[in-house]
Description:
Blueprint: H1 8-17, H2 22-42, H3 45-79
Amino acid sequence: MARVKKNKWSLFVKQTSTKPSRELLEKIRKQIEFYFDVNMRKEDSGIASLYLVIGITCVAIAVMMSLSCIRNQIFIFRQM
């Protein structure tokens, strides 16, 4: 029988191969929350609001163009 070398990865696989424990899930959740919290603080809110304004403007232009196309189609069908 081969001996299994114990290291942190084999223990991690052993823990997560079955139903993960509540403590492990809590630890992973805290790490994810910390990661997002740190990255959100680094991100400049001005750039995010600029992207939001650009996105809303693009959607408004697309809606206006589609409405004008529909209006033109109705006008063409009325003339026929």
